[in-house]
Design brief:
Blueprint (H helix, E strand, L loop, with lengths): L29 H30 L3 H8 L3 H11 L3 H9 L6 H12 L5 H11 L7 H14 L5 H12 L4 H24 L1
Helix pairs in contact: 3-4, 3-9, 5-6, 5-7, 6-7
Length: 197
């Protein structure tokens, strides 16, 4: 059996000092640990996104960036078409949507406006001009073609293909505007020829 010494006879010391030697150890609480993990995750995601953007730019896969640099904005294109062809109702529609009108909405507006006989030719011309826009969403382009065919029964797939081939050769906003000008001039020439016969 083990015997313990008598504990009642112990000496106690109390020490006091005006100075503290050493430093305080800061413990990381759960909240701070989560904060550090969020910061680390943010840094990793930022790095990955910069890396992916660099790859997309160098491989030319960033076509929406080219759309804004070379081909103007959507509202600029629609505004040019509406002023060139002289459709003030479309300009009002653009302003109604605070310069944020989609190609699809524009095509639907032109279909509605084109149902009135006095605006029909201008709306057909505007819809044809929309087909000259290079970076238009496929669904919006389908709506433009559909609405164009509803207003003009002479529009066929071969006519649409002709516009597609013209569009492929357009390199920037100036080419687009020149083609809208040409289309507008051809339409005016046809109207004056038809009117004089």
């Amino acid at each position: 059996m083990i015997q313990l010494p008598d504990m009642s006879k112990t000496i106690k010391f109390n020490l006091r000092s005006d100075e503290v030697i050493g430093s305080t150890i800061k413990t990381i609480t759960d909240r701070e640990g989560k904060s550090k993990r969020i910061e680390l995750l943010g840094a990793i995601l930022s790095s990955v996104s910069v890396f992916l953007m660099a790859i997309m730019v160098t491989t030319g896969k960033l076509s929406f960036l080219n759309m804004f640099i070379k081909n103007g904005g959507r509202d600029d294109n629609i505004y040019y078409i509406s002023t060139k062809i002289d459709i003030p109702e479309l300009v009002e529609e653009i302003h109604k949507y605070n310069n944020n009108i989609s190609y699809m909405r524009t095509a639907d507006f032109l279909l509605k406006l084109g149902n009135s006989h006095e605006k029909k030719e201008k709306c057909i011309l505007a819809l044809k001009s929309l087909l000259l826009i290079k970076h238009i969403a496929p669904l919006s382009k389908k709506v433009v073609i559909r609405n164009l065919m509803k207003l003009d029964n002479t529009i066929t797939d071969s006519v649409v293909e002709k516009f597609n081939s013209i569009t492929e050769n357009l390199s920037d906003i100036i080419d687009f505007r020149n083609e809208v000008d040409n289309l507008s001039s051809e339409s005016i020439t046809k109207s004056s020829t038809n009117g004089s016969t």
